[in-house]
Amino acid sequence: MRYNQVKDLVEWAAGFHARMARQYSEAAEKAENERLQMAFNYLASRELKMKTGLEDLFRDGADHSEVLELWFDDSNDFPQPPELDRLAEQTITGSIEDAMRTATSAHQRLQLLYEHRASRAKIEPEEEFFNALAQGHNSEIRHIMASMEELQGV
Questions:
Q1: Is the CA virtual torsion 43, 44, 46, 47 positive or negative?
Q2: The pTM is what?
Q3: CA 114, CA 92: separation in Å to the nearest integer?
Q4: If we measure between CA atoms, which residue out of 113, 79, 80, 93 comes closest to residue 24?
Q5: Nearest of 21, 130, 15 to residue 68 by alpha carbon
Q6: What is the pLDDT of residues 48-69, one digit of tens each?
Q7: Cα–Cα distance, 118 to 104 (Å, whole number)
Q8: Tell me, what DSSP letter sits at residue 92?
Q9: What's the CA gap between 61 and 56, in Å, rounded?
Q10: Which residues, 6+ apart, have CB-to-CB distance to 76 below 8 Å?
């Protein structure tokens, strides 16, 4: 996948979170037990939160226009978007452990994508921007794992 501006990448990531939220919501509707349904609903809400956070970067008052408007042409292959697109298209079912694995895998791949962009940043604000997004996914992984482990113990 090739991007032209940073905002294109951010829009794609917001769309990815929306697709994952739909997948988790659909899985919650089909869940075999209440605990699994709660886990999927929780993951859907976290994905919507991530989507909203990215969309907020485009709203008035967000001071990221300098970075969002940057153009880049990276001939290096981005393995994460196609992998993530496939993940967002698959039917999510299974156990709480499966749900946790899917969620952490998605966030780890997004974290790698953002770290990749930070390492190729042309200006310091761009590097800081992508490092902040990567750190956000690292935090999200820890948050999800703790919450899902707690849910398993209920």
A1: positive
A2: 0.89
A3: 25
A4: 93
A5: 130
A6: 999 999 999 988 666 888 899 9
A7: 21
A8: P
A9: 9
A10: 116, 120
Q: Which residue has the tokens 């993951």?
A: 43
Inter-residue contact 137 to 111 (CB < 8 Å): yes
Tokens 């770290």: give the residue: 115
Percent above pLDDT 90 for the chain: 56
Tokens of 98: 């499966």
* CA atoms of 5 and 66, how far apart (whole Å): 11
Tokens 């993940």 locate to 87
**Residue 51: what pLDDT?**
97
CA distances from 135 to 4, 112, 141, 153 (A): 23, 10, 10, 27
Q: Which of 40, 135, 28 is nearest to 97 (CA)?
A: 40
In contact, 20 and 54? CB cutoff 8 Å: no
Radius of gyration of the chain (CA): 16
Residue for token digits 């699994």?
A: 36
CA pair distance 18, 21, nearest whole angstrom: 5
